[in-house]
Design brief:
It is a single chain. The chain is of the alpha/beta class. Helices cover 39% and strands 13% of the residues. It contains 17 helices and eleven strands. It has a seven-stranded mixed β-sheet. It has a four-stranded mixed β-sheet with strand order 2-1-3-4. A hairpin with a 5-residue loop joins strand 1 and strand 2. Helix 1 runs antiparallel to helix 6 and helix 2 packs across helix 6. It starts with a helix and ends in a 27-residue tail after the last strand.
């Protein structure tokens, strides 16, 4: 009997309260859902068992990493279609909102087939957010799924919504019947083991020195050859700075140069590059601006790669790469500090110490360029929680803060914030370029790591690109100064040009 896909579609529509926006193909060859849309392929019943034993985003994430879910068609389109249903944030008010089931993830988990590298567009594109979790199931026997959508219900914010959503959902008889139907499709019952790519969670507090080393190693020590495949020759793992029609390499060069210019670097200056990665910023500052650079990273693989690049470039007299925690740097003062894509690893509880440490390492008049991803503020900031998929597979212990929180902590540390530049659309373009490189070299990427690791990166980068395009995430360069005596910040009166005035406009 080949009816698994129609049954799955009926379950999904009952729980979502709306028609399925994509097509589904099940392990028995059956299909259901609107034609002409991307196809979510459920290869076997283990994917459903994962959703039941680990409800929420983690169940689907594990199924995707294990290769039990794939997609035929455009991955970005599928994520955009499904994300509109799964990721919408609802304010904590009694106003009715669509049911958000505990059986769907924050980030949909489907890989796309390898594709040739597309031309990176010169203008921004489009995106989508985050739900709940059920307890481990003790489910009754299957029953028919009643017709009609599940009733709409209010949402609570953050952590409370995970339990509250589950309780509200399962009070509805149609939702309970849908869960029973899912259980019937998922049998037999053993709970599948987590894929090996999942980070093994250790106990104790977050963001200790040892814990940070372990988290950084999980993300970065997966093979420099793999990162070359994804990032390209620049080996810059942060938002590029695009010009219309530009290439990824040009955009990464321009980003590094933008940072150097904002920091007003010159020959003989001392620059501390916190979280130096594979050394690209250090090399650019030394080669193009004659700066003496100290780069620090917790990744041994990054450090080895960066040191080789320094030696091959003949810059050993200007650049030192250390395996060192930024908290242990004690050879200031520096003229400037660059922190590019590193502060996301610091943690909210440690951020004030991070800002104070960098402030203390600068000379009076020194500058900090803090380049950091930001999330939207929560109605209740205490309800913020780390995304389960990202925490388990991408950035263990990583935390995002709203821009206002970051600026406030820098100011509390003593910095004067002089410029904030939002680069949100630039990161969407960068991530799409990385996805294109990964998909174009899919077989090689799998060989260099594992099939699961390649799927993690494809999903994480594609979903992140959409999040930046739709404004759920942002990325900002914050220029802050440790002002000298009598308040001299050393910043030009007009540090940026915003475009031509009326008299300079075409046709004026």
């Amino acid at each position: 009997m080949t009816d698994a896909a129609p049954r799955l579609a009926a379950v999904a529509e009952t729980l979502l309260g709306t028609p399925l926006p994509v097509r589904v193909r099940a392990w028995d060859g059956s299909e259901a859902g609107p034609p002409g849309t991307p196809i979510l392929v459920v290869h076997n019943r283990r994917a459903l068992r994962r959703m039941l034993w680990k409800p929420g985003e983690m169940g689907l994430a594990r199924a995707w990493v294990a290769g039990e879910l794939t997609v035929e068609g455009d991955l970005f389109e599928l994520l955009d279609r499904v994300g509109g249903l799964l990721w919408a944030r609802v304010p904590a008010t009694p106003a009715p909102a669509p049911a958000t089931p505990a059986l769907v993830p924050t980030v949909p988990t489907v890989p796309a087939a390898p594709a040739p590298v597309p031309t990176v567009p010169a203008t921004p594109l489009r995106v989508n957010g985050s739900p709940p979790v059920l307890p481990q199931p003790v489910l009754p026997a299957p029953a028919p799924v009643p017709q009609g959508p599940a009733p709409r219900r209010p949402r609570l914010p953050g952590r409370l919504s995970r339990a509250a959503d589950t309780a509200a959902l399962l009070r509805d008889p149609r939702a309970r019947a849908a869960v029973r139907e899912l259980a019937a499709l998922a049998r037999p019952w053993p709970a599948p083991a987590a894929p090996p790519e999942e980070a093994r969670r250790r106990g104790g507090p977050r963001h200790t020195r040892g814990g940070d080393r372990q988290a950084i190693s999980h993300h970065y020590d997966v093979g420099n050859d793999f990162y070359e495949r994804v990032l390209g020759p620049s080996m810059v793992y942060s938002c590029a700075y695009w010009s219309p029609g530009g290439t990824l390499e040009e955009a990464q060069h321009d980003k590094l140069d933008l940072v150097c210019r904002k920091l007003a670097l010159g020959p003989g200056d001392r620059l501390l590059d916190v979280g130096c990665g594979w050394g690209s910023m250090a090399l650019h500052a030394a080669r193009e601006y004659g700066v003496r650079v100290t780069g620090v990273t917790l990744s041994r693989e990054q450090a080895a790669y960066a040191r080789k690049r320094v030696a091959d470039g003949g810059l050993a007299d200007l650049v030192e790469i250390r395996i060192q925690d930024y908290r242990d740097v004690a050879d200031g003062p520096y003229d400037a500090v660059s922190s590019i894509g590193m502060a996301e690893h610091v943690g909210a509880d440690r951020y004030r110490d991070y800002a104070r440490t960098l402030y203390a390492l600068l000379r009076p008049g020194g500058r900090l360029l803090n380049h950091q991803i930001a999330r939207r503020p929560e109605p209740d900031e205490e309800a913020y929680r780390i995304n389960d998929f990202i925490d388990a597979y991408v950035f263990p212990d990583g935390e995002l803060s709203p821009l206002g929180t970051t600026v406030g902590e820098l100011e509390r540390a003593g910095f004067e914030v002089r410029d904030v530049e939002a680069l949100r659309e630039h990161y969407a373009l960068t991530l799409r370029a990385w996805v294109a490189r990964l998909e174009a070299g899919w077989d090689e990427a799998v060989r260099l790591t594992s099939p699961g690791r390649a799927r993690v990166w494809q999903l994480y980068m594609a979903a992140s690109a959409l999040a930046f395009e739709h404004g759920r995430l942002g990325v900002n360069q914050v220029l802050a100064v440790k002002s000298a005596a009598r308040g001299d910040a050393g910043v030009p009166l007009r540090p940026r040009t915003w475009g031509p005035g009326p008299e300079e406009s075409p046709g004026a």
